[in-house]
Amino acid sequence: MAEAIKSALNRRKSAPTDFSPGGDYSPLKEEFKPDSTRARFEELVNTYRNTNDIRGRALSGFDKSVGNGGSLLQLMSMVKGGELPPTSQISRVINKIKFGTMRESATTFQGRKVVDNLENSTTKGLAAFEEINGNDNAQEIIGSMNNIRKKTIDDRKEMTHKAKESTIESKSDFSTAGKDFLVLANGIGTSSSFRKALGDMFSLVSAMVQNKKLSSEDNQPLIDRVRNLIVEVRKDTSVRKSMSSLHSLYGTSFTKGSSAMKDAREKAEDHPALEDYRHAREHAKDLFSRMGNGYDVTKLVAALSAVGVMVRDNQNIRELIDNAKGFGDWAMNVDEDELTADEFESRSKDLIHQSQSVFTEEDSKQFDTLSHEFKGYTHAVQENPVLVEYKNSMV
C-alpha cells in the first residue's frame, strides 16, 4: 500500500505542467498564410485535450469555450460544402466564442499568445467579411448560380438522371459552384500571389495576340513568360486551387448564364435562368467593388463579359481554352526538369501559334482593357483597409 502511494506521488511530480505547443514555439512567418494561426490553435487544443491528470481527467477547458459548439461545427461544415447562412447568423455564431475562457485554460504565455492571435484574426476576419459581404452578396450569388444550373435544359436532364442514381450526388453537384466561388473570392481578397498570377495570365494572352506576326524564334520571350507563369502557380497550392475554381466557374455558371441571355435574345423571350444570371451579376459587382474598397468595376466586368461572349460564340476559342487547360494540367504535374525540356517548348509554341491564329486585333483590345483594369483593381484590393487589417492579424 505504501509503495502504491509513493508511486502515485512520483507520477504526480512528473506529470507535465506545460501543455502548450512546446518550448520550440516560434512566431509565424510574415508571409500571409490564413490557416497558420488556426493550425497552431488546433495543435494547442489537441495537446490539452489529449493530456490527462493522474486520475484520468482531461485537462482541456477549450471545448467549453465555444457557445453552442454544434452551431459552429455546422457553420464550418456548410462553408466547406459551398453553402453560407445569412451573414447575421454567421456573426452571431462567431461572436459566441469565449476567447477569455480559452486564455484561462492555457497554462503558458505561448499558449495564451496563440489564443490572442486567434481572437485577433477572427475579429478582423469577421469585420472584413461583414464589410465586403454587405447585402449578403455571397449568399445571393451562390443561390443564383445554383438556380442557373437547375434551370438550364441540359442540366435538368442531367440532374434528373443523377437524382435517380443518388440524391446525395445531385445535391453535391449543386454546391460545386458555391465552393468554387468562395475559393475564388478568398483568393482574390487574400492572396497577392493569386492576383499576380491572374494579372500575368491576362497580360500574357494580350501579348500573344499583339505579337502574332513574329517568327517562331521571336516568340521565345513569350515561351519564357509561359514558363514563368507555370512556375509561379506551381509553387503555391492555394493559387492552383483558386485557378482551378476560376476555370470551373467560367466553364459552368458564367458560360451557362451567357448562353441563357443569348437564347433569350434569339427567341425574343426570357430564359428561365436569365433573371438569376442578372441577379448574380449585380451582387458580384457589389461584392468585388466592396473588396476593392469601392473601386468601380464597370469596365472590368464589361471586359470579362466580352471575353465570355468570345468563348460562347467561337468554337475555335473554346478549343484553344481546352488545349490550354490540357497543357496547364500537364505542366502543373510533371517533374520540374520537364519545364525546360523540348516537349514544354514544343507545346508552348503550339499554344502560342493557336492563340495568334484564333484571336483578332479587336479581341486583343478586350484583353488589353482586361489586363489594365485588373491591375488597377488588384491595387485597390491590396490597399483596402479592412483587408490590410485582416492580413496583418494573420501573424
What do these coordinates show?
- The chain is 75% helix and 0% strand.
- With 395 residues, it is mostly helical.
- α5 (99-105) packs antiparallel against α6 (109-132).
- Mean pLDDT is 76; it is low at 8-34 and 162-174.
Give a nutshell description of this structure.
By secondary structure, this protein is mainly alpha-helical. The chain has helices spanning 2-14, 36-49, 69-80, 87-95, 99-105, 109-132, 137-151, 153-165, 167-190, 192-210, 220-234, 237-267, 274-291, 298-313, 315-333, 342-358, 361-383, 385-393. The N and C termini lie far apart (52 Å).
Describe how the helices and strands are arranged.
Layout: H1 2-14, H2 36-49, H3 69-80, H4 87-95, H5 99-105, H6 109-132, H7 137-151, H8 153-165, H9 167-190, H10 192-210, H11 220-234, H12 237-267, H13 274-291, H14 298-313, H15 315-333, H16 342-358, H17 361-383, H18 385-393
Helix pairs in contact: 2-6, 5-6, 6-18, 7-9, 7-12, 7-13, 8-9, 9-12, 10-11, 10-12, 10-16, 10-17, 11-15, 11-16, 12-13, 12-14, 14-15, 14-17, 15-16
Write a concise keyword list for the protein shown above.
395 residues, mainly alpha, 18 helices
Helix % is: over 70%
Radius of gyration, CA atoms, in whole angstroms: 26 Å
Helix count? 18
Give the rounded overall mean pLDDT: 76
What general form does the structure show?
Answer: globular
Q: Give, in order, the helices and strands.
A: HHHHHHHHHHHHHHHHHH
Number of strand elements: 0
- Given the helix and strand composition, which structural class is it? mainly alpha
Largest sheet: none
Percentage of residues in strands: under 5%
Give the end-to-end Cα distance, rounded to a whole number of Å.
52 Å
What ranges have pLDDT less than 50 throughout 5 or more consecutive residues? Answer: 8-34, 162-174
